[in-house]
Amino acid sequence: MAAATKKRLLQSAAFSPKFFSTTASRVLRTGDTLRQTRVFSCEDILRYSEVSHDSNPLHFDPEVARSSGFEDRLVHGMLVAALFPRIISSNFPGAIYASQSLHFKTPVYIGEEIIGEVVATSVREHKNKYIAKFATKCFKKKGDLLVIDGEATAILPSICQQQ
Question: GO: which molecular function terms (predicted)?
């Protein structure tokens, strides 16, 4: 964009700082939505179980899962919820995850495509850092069924998103 065009945009009465910041410099604003998609594999379940020491047979034995009323083996709910800090930290390196509430709505099965979504609900500056609150949700790609609902708070070193 030519310098003269930029100058006219800045002087224009129709200029919108929010539009400019979210489009040009990708500054986080209330209402902004960030998403990532993930498919959880058998390997993911095994690795998470090894680290967390959660060896509940619902995650490993299809017969136990079915006798408990599920279609098949389940992905650990906390593994699915790990999408939220992943989304935040990949957009804001150095972010500190401060809190998270979770409501598990629907089971996730191995191989299902899950969409993690965080929506900024408030952003405020505090001592040269930013406190950001997010509505957090995960959906099954197939049918857009809500899997997890919650809220998160993170301390961001900057509100400029990494691209």
Answer: (3R)-hydroxyacyl-[acyl-carrier-protein] dehydratase activity
